[in-house]
Design a protein that fits this description.
The complex is a heterodimer of chains A (547) and B (187). Helices cover 66% and strands 0% of the residues of chain A. Chain A is built from 18 helices and no strands. The longest helix of chain B is centred in the first third of the chain and has 39 residues. The chains are: A mainly alpha (547), B alpha+beta (187). Chains A and B meet through helix 7, helix 8 and helix 9 of A and helix 1, strand 5, strand 9 and helix 2 of B. The complex binds protoporphyrin IX containing FE and copper (II) ion. Copper (II) ion binds next to helix 9 of chain A.
């Protein structure tokens, strides 16, 4: 049985090195092999494929939104359905596409980068993955229920999501709980793996930055997922059991909802970007053929971003009527985050400086990330200015901001990682020509879509509306054209992936000339079991922080 | 596979620690609700005022300042009632006792109950808005078509920060039959 390999924790006394040799012989075949797998690489692939599927499901919803907004007036969908589309798009992209993609990359790469044979808790790993299809199956099924699916925005503010919510809301809550449990279990597993299974000799400050950023992300998940679980539980009680946590009629307070939500929500946005920082910090040195500039400062910057992310939540609530001192506090603390973020951007640029740079597809996506994520960071600093935010809040300017940090930010980093490690996963390089097409069309599409939103937002167009005033028509038409271009360009990635799985240029163990790290010491494609005996690691030679 | 006995021990220890941290965060989340209530009661930061009659402030009346008290009402939460502020703006000196009148009208022809829930903005002023008598301390019952006039007796505390020149008190009407059926008002 595949579950043999989980002896590590559950049955500490059984399981010797020999027992493990057998288990592949007894593996179930066909579909059951994937259902029951406890292998970190196979689970990583499941996560990645699931998130790719969700990317297209959520992307289709985005295209419904953009089709409706192509022109003013109501063309294709009713406002009720439009609201369900904006809500589901956000929820699916955040919890179904971006987060699982990073967990998938963690599963594949963390054990290989620290020289471990597998994740610390392989059976739990299988369970956390399979919670996700259930969670999103439930979430998607609400669209077919009477009264429709969630229609209150991905931030599900009460009382919109309680008193005025559709009957399907309890299913929505259930699916958030399941996705949350999945994230928490994944985080426990990642922490246990990183802290205990590093190959002998590898100190914390010898780990790759992807491992570092994931370790810190996992702590963020442990800290804030319970808050999300708590807030949806209170909603459930308000809806079904007559409590009044958020209902002013019963003495509750809707603003409490926003505090709780954003206490989770702001760290959550960093959960979606810290692993991206890690990926870019590996790819830039590889293709600049230089060591990463400022390894230690990268680690400290990541940790300070994570800590600061707990004290900035109310920058999402500047307009709810906070006292002046609170507005000032949250304004300055938010701007403070730009400092460690700036340190990172500086370090990447310093790494590029005087490097012998080549522009393979992973590098293109990483460079695109640096430029466009910074644009998103800058609009973030604008939003942090309280008096300016009074105008920008709930307009398309905010939509432009967070899509810049999440699409050419988080998503580009995931794609960069996929192109970077595809030789390791499939044994073949990704098709370079197609990859370039994918990159350039994505860059054009993403900027056509989201750059004009800065302008429509500054001109006052509110977010989450199916129809709009005539003066916004041109900007919206450009955004919609860009949106379709971007959406369809992602099909090229599927093509690239299928091609690489089926064949293509064979990759050697060290697929990229300038690559460093233990994952490049095992063959391409990586065999099912790697590092059954811990690899040799000499910090003076192998550590990314060596002098 | 090579996971050694010592790393098994380590994994167990890490899992135990993270699960404790997780439980800690769960408790923290549960505690946040009462903490928020207490925090708001002390600072008045959510604009809520006291839910029962308060005593007058003994501080001396400050004749050098005027504070405009605006009274606004909102209905439309499903209750077929009308709530009107008969005195929409009252100018008072801090420390002065003043009265405002409100009219409740049941526009339907069946008996029902409702409660007006107050909120003060700017919220920093909430703590300094003292109510000696208010219809908002309990629910009201109205027969079909009935109309009653009810007073609010209040005092603006002289400790009100000097930069606040206008206080807005908003009453929102909620149907009480529903709230009671669902478990009552959280004082
Ligand atoms: C320099 C760093 C950043 C600053 C100063 C910043 C600031 C802000 C502010 C002030 C808002 C609230 C705007 C409003 O609603 O009026 C906001 C919204 C948002 N930010 Fe950022 N941000 C930064 C980076 C990021 C990153 C890295 C991400 C995610 C990867 C992100 C994701 C979001 C999201 C999703 C929202 C909108 C949430 C919503 O209302 O739906 N931000 N940001
Ligand atoms: Cu934020």
């Amino acid at each position: 049985m595949a579950s043999e390999s989980t002896h590590a924790v559950l049955q500490p006394n059984v399981g010797t090195a020999e027992q493990h040799g057998h288990h592949s012989a007894q593996m179930p075949t066909g579909i059951m092999r994937w259902v029951l797998t406890t292998n970190h690489k196979e689970i990583g692939s499941l996560y990645l494929l699931f998130s790719l599927l969700m990317l297209f499901v959520g992307g289709t919803m985005a295209l419904v939104i953009r089709a409706e907004l192509f022109q003013p007036g109501l063309q294709y969908v009713q406002p009720e359905f439009f609201n369900q589309m904006t809500t589901m798009h956000g929820l699916i992209m955040v919890f179904g596409a971006i987060m699982p993609a990073f967990v998938g990359l963690a599963n594949w790469m963390i054990p290989m980068q620290i020289g471990a044979p597998d994740m610390a808790l392989p059976r739990l790993n299988n369970f956390s993955f399979w919670l996700l299809p259930v969670a999103f199956g439930i979430l998607l099924s609400t669209l077919l229920m009477e009264g429709g699916g969630p229609n209150f925005g991905w931030t599900f503010y009460a009382p919109l999501s309680t008193t005025y919510a559709p009957p399907s809301t309890s299913f929505f809550i259930m699916s958030i709980h399941l996705a949350g449990i999945s994230s928490i279990l994944g985080a426990i597993n990642i922490i246990a793996t990183i802290l205990n299974l590093r190959t002998p000799g590898m100190r914390l400050m010898d780990m790759s930055l992807f491992v570092w950023t994931w370790l810190i992300t996992a702590f963020l998940l442990i800290a804030v997922m319970p808050v999300l679980a708590g807030v949806v539980t209170m909603m459930l009680l308000d809806i079904n059991f007559g409590t009044s946590f958020f209902d002013a009629a019963g003495g509750g307070d809707p603003v409490l909802f926003q505090h709780l939500f954003w206490f989770f929500g702001h760290p959550e946005v960093y959960i979606m970007i810290l692993p991206a920082f890690g990926i870019v910090s590996l790819i830039v040195p590889t293709f600049a053929r230089k060591r990463l500039f400022g390894y230690a400062s990268m680690v400290y910057a990541t940790a300070s971003i994570a800590l600061l992310s707990f004290v900035v939540w109310a920058h999402h609530m500047f307009t709810v009527g906070l006292p002046l001192t609170a507005e000032l506090f949250f304004m300055y603390s938010t701007m403070l985050i730009a400092v460690p973020t700036g340190v990172k951007v500086f370090n990447w640029i310093a790494t590029l400086f005087r490097g012998s740079i080549t522009f393979e597809v992973p590098m293109l996506f990483a460079l695109g990330f640096i430029v466009m994520f910074t644009i998103g960071g800058l609009s973030g600093v604008m939003l942090a200015i309280v008096p300016a935010d009074f105008q920008y809040h709930d307009t398309y300017f905010v939509v432009a901001h967070f899509h810049y940090v999440l699409v050419p930010g988080a998503l580009f980093a995931i794609l960069a990682g996929a192109y970077y490690w595809m030789p390791k996963w499939t044994g073949h390089y990704a098709d370079e020509t197609l990859g370039r097409w994918h990159f350039w069309l994505s860059v054009i599409g993403v900027n056509l879509t989201f750059f004009p939103m800065h302008f429509s937002g500054l001109a006052g167009m509110p977010r989450r509306i199916p129809d709009y005033a005539l003066q916004f028509a041109d900007f919206n038409m450009i955004s919609s054209i860009g949106g379709f271009l971007f959406g369809f360009s992602q099909l090229i990635f599927v093509w690239v992936l299928v091609k690489a799985i089926r064949g293509g240029e064979k990759a050697p163990a060290k697929a990229w000339e300038g690559a460093e790290g233990l994952e490049w010491t095992v063959p391409c494609p990586a065999p099912t079991h790697t590092f059954e005996t811990p690899p040799k690691f000499v910090p003076e030679v192998d550590s990314p922080s060596r002098h | 596979m090579s996971k050694s006995q010592s790393s098994d021990e380590g994994v167990k220890r890490t899992v135990r620690t993270t699960v404790w941290a997780l439980l800690g965060m769960v408790l923290f989340t549960i505690a946040l609700v009462p903490l928020y209530d207490v925090f708001c009661e002390v600072t008045g930061l959510n604009g809520k005022t006291a839910t029962s009659a308060q005593v007058m402030s003994a501080q001396e009346r400050d004749d050098t300042r005027w504070v405009r008290v605006q009274l606004v009402t909102r209905s439309g939460t499903g209750l077929p009632w009308r709530l009107e502020a008969l005195d929409q703006v009252i100018a008072v000196h801090p420390g002065e006792i003043a009265q405002a009148r409100f009219r409740f009208t049941n526009t339907s022809d069946v008996r029902s109950s409702g409660r007006a829930v107050p909120s003060v903005s700017p919220s920093q002023g909430a703590r300094h808005f003292r109510k000696m008598e208010c219809f908002c301390f309990q629910e009201q019952w109205l027969e079909g078509g009935e109309s009653i006039e009810l007073p609010l007796v209040f005092q603006v505390d002289p400790a009100l920060p000097a930069d606040i020149q206008t206080l807005t008190l908003a009453y929102t009407l909620y149907p009480m039959s529903e709230v009671v059926a669902q478990g009552g008002y959280r004082e």
